[in-house]
Amino acid sequence: MMSAATLLQTSLSDLQLVRRGKVRDVYAVDDRSLLIVATDRISAFDCVLPTPIQRKGEVLTALSEFWFQQLGDVIPNHLITSDVAKMPEPVRQHAAELQGRSMLVKRA
User: Fold this and answer.
1) Stated pTM of the model
2) Which of 22, 70, 93, 101 has the lowest tally of Cβ within 10 angstroms?
3) Domain of 44: which CATH number?
4) Sign of the CA dihedral with 81 first, then 82, 83, and 88 last
């Protein structure tokens, strides 16, 4: 986990925003992959609350990555990498903002 500032919303102008959920922002990277960014937004009862939780997105990403790796031999999953340095250039340009809170995944 790297960053200490809270992240309420991403704005990656060189990537197409596919959807903004209650907690995660999803961007199209190419025709085969998506970038999922976990923010520090919190939600309860389908409402996004105004106060973020610092580093929440990093914790969510770490938990997801852990379980994808643990269960990868049991069933295939969509994770390509959570290492920003291994992601395509348009993503790496935003490495400081995305490190520890983003996953490059296969489109379903």
Assistant:
1) 0.90
2) 70
3) 3.30.200.20
4) positive
